[in-house]
Amino acid sequence: MYLHGTSTINQLGHLEIGGVDTVDIAGRFGTPVYVYDVALIRERARGFQRAFEQADVKYQVAYASKAFSCIAMVQLADEMGMSLDIVSSGELMTAKKAGFPMERVHFHGNNKSPEEIDLALDFGVGCFVLDNFYEVSLLQEKTLSKNQKVDALIRTTPGVEAHTHEYISTGQEDSKFGFDLASGQADKVIKMLKDDAYIQLRGVHSHIGSQIFDTNGFVLTVEKLFSQFTRWKEEYDFVPEILNAGGGFGIRYVEGDEPLPPEHYVADLVKAVKKEAAKADMAVPEIWIEPGRSITGDAGTTLYTVGSTKDIPGVRRYLSVDGGMTDNIRPALYQAEYEGVLANRANETAADTFAVAGKCCESGDMLMWKLPLPEVEHRDILAVFCTGAYGYSMANNYNRITRPPVVFVEDSQADLVVKGESLEDITKNDLPFRSKERV
Questions:
Q1: What pLDDT, on a 0 to 100 scale, did the predictor assign at position 438?
Q2: Correct CATH for 108-291 of 1.10.150.120, 3.40.50.300, 3.30.1490.100, 3.20.20.10
Q3: Across residues 253-258, what is the average pLDDT?
Q4: What is the pLDDT of residue 175?
Q5: What's the CATH number of domain 8-37+297-427, 3.30.470.20, 1.10.10.10, 2.40.37.10, 3.40.50.2000?
Q6: Distance between CA 132 and CA 11 in Å, rounded?
Q7: Which of 70, 127, 360, 361 is catalytic?
Q8: In the chain, what percentage of residues exceed pLDDT 90?
Q9: Which of 20, 303, 389, 392 has the most CB atoms around it within 10 Å of its CB?
Q10: HSE-up (13 A, CA, CB side) for residue 422
């Protein structure tokens, strides 16, 4: 059994996180429930920051809020001195409600609406990451009409594809994101903004994928970008002040996953940037990164209650839980794999393997296919590890199932930071249909 962060097995044989018994958490808040190890979140963030400080370079570590966003998480990111990567007006409003400093907000997205751009400008967002020509034109119109100056980066697709699942690869040339380097799209946008009175183009952004376990892709991306920087300096007198290398740093979900410590990713990235800057006779740019999953992923654990079981002799043993694809859709979308344990009997030896099924009316609602467990009993509490990224943020109401609460644990204290939905919440936005036959 691999335990993450502060997780341990207490004297009762129960799984404990942040000094809090998870069986008590399930009893107090119900299941399903997302539990976050705040100390581990702090440790992950500090690992990235410390590596930059040791390298003595200017930097920003921006938390990619798409991984997990709520007011409490944004406030924690602020407390840790992070910047914030947002991609929608909803994430922007969450940052506003959390009191996050807007100058440290970076606004991403491949289809920002005119209304979202207006809101971001009104809130004073610190940096726009420009993704396409339509957006550039929109931002030019808005900044001119508001007589407002903004900083911007251009997102590039450098033609580097990380070793990752095809659905979450975004750095190759054939991508919905960013300006392609090979075809000259990035050159065109530089020319569009070179003399713009309101948009200050400060640098470039790239993101090459997710769940990356080595630094080769980042190093190659830096080399390709600097080859462009040299040419841009000569042709457009444009020298990027900021190089944003994106995110995608991997975590351990299951045995065989071998991610690097945060400081290793940063060390190799900084080394590559310094090397290429020296070759190009340029100042070392400020380096930004955008970890999301690697900040919250392995800090999250979801607790479920075991319900029905089904044994098919010679085929498979099923157990069903009171959640599933409504609180964790990644197994259905990406065939994502997880590990877990019976939280109330965590010290017992596994007797067999079980397929863990969700409660949705879908045959594809499976959380795990071969989880080693003791003989399972109804009302056992199942803990599924590493659900801190893209669990809550992708939760849904399929089958009109309510979304779970979120609890932060630290120093033996459990705090509810997101209420679970009620049955009344499910229909609160519904309106009656005025049928002709009923009038």
A1: 63
A2: 3.20.20.10
A3: 95
A4: 77
A5: 2.40.37.10
A6: 57
A7: 361
A8: 92
A9: 303
A10: 3
- Is residue 289 scored above 80 in pLDDT? yes
Return the minimum-mean-pLDDT range out of 170-174, 211-215, 388-392.
Answer: 170-174
H or E, element range at 414: strand 413-418
Can you list the alpha helix ranges (DSSP code H) found in 280-387?
A: 293-296, 330-334
Indicate the burial class of 173 (C-beta count within 10 angstroms; 0-12, 13-18, 19 or more): middle
Q: Which residues are annotated as a binding site?
A: 248, 290-293, 330, 334, 362, 390
d(CA 105, CA 358): 37
pLDDT of residue 167: 45
Query: Tell me: the pLDDT tens digits for 112-122?
Result: 999 999 999 99
Fill in the DSSP letter of residue 343: G
Residues 361-373: tens digit of each pLDDT:
999 999 999 999 9
User: Which residues are part of a known binding site for pyridoxal 5'-phosphate?
Assistant: 248, 290-293, 390
What are the extents of the domains in the chain? Answer: 8-37+297-427, 108-291
Q: Among positive and negative, which fits the CA dihedral 306, 362, 1, 403?
A: negative
**Inter-residue contact 352 to 372 (CB < 8 Å):** yes
